[in-house]
Amino acid sequence: MRMVSQMKCIRCGGNSFSSTTNEVIDTKRGTLTIKNIPCYKCEKCGETYYTGDIAEQIETMESIFLSTDHPDGGAQSVGNCHDSYADGEFVIQK
């Protein structure tokens, strides 16, 4: 059974529960995929919400991705976010 939080969905008013998700961000440099991100999901409509800390970390990863050269052009594991995201990692695909 999943843990329902006190957080209400701003889209539909449904209850939210703790979960993890993946985020795929298309940029001018390629596609950034971030895995196992802690989040809250609405039971009713499925909307995903991040805490402020997590949203900030996603933005930081995107900034790192946009400022790093990838000469081989292939998919690369850029870092492990073990401290921030439990077992999460972010992977870059061009």
What does this structure look like?
The structure is a single chain. The protein has 94 residues and is of the alpha+beta class. The chain has one domain (4-93): Ubiquitin-like (UB roll). Helices cover 21% and strands 46% of the residues. Strands 1, 2, 3, 4, 5 and 6 form a 6-stranded antiparallel sheet that branches. The longest helix is centred in the middle third of the chain and has 16 residues, at 52-67. It is elongated. The model is unreliable at 71-88 (pLDDT under 50).
Any key phrases for this structure?
2 helices; six-stranded antiparallel beta sheet; alpha+beta; 94 residues; Ubiquitin-like (UB roll)
Number of beta strands:
6
Distance between the termini: 38 Å
Flag low-confidence runs.
71-88
For the residues shown, what is the average pLDDT?
A: 76
CATH topology: Ubiquitin-like (UB roll)
Query: Which term fits the overall shape?
Result: elongated
Outline the biggest β-sheet: 6 strands, antiparallel
CATH class: Alpha Beta
List the SSEs and their pairings.
Blueprint: E1 4-8, E2 15-27, E3 30-42, E4 48-49, H1 52-67, E5 76-80, H2 82-85, E6 89-93
Antiparallel strand pairs: 1-2, 2-3, 3-4, 3-6, 5-6
Structure, briefly:
The protein has about 90 residues and is an alpha+beta fold. The protein has helices at about 50-65, 80-85; strands at about 5-10, 15-25, 30-40, 50, 75-80, 90-94.
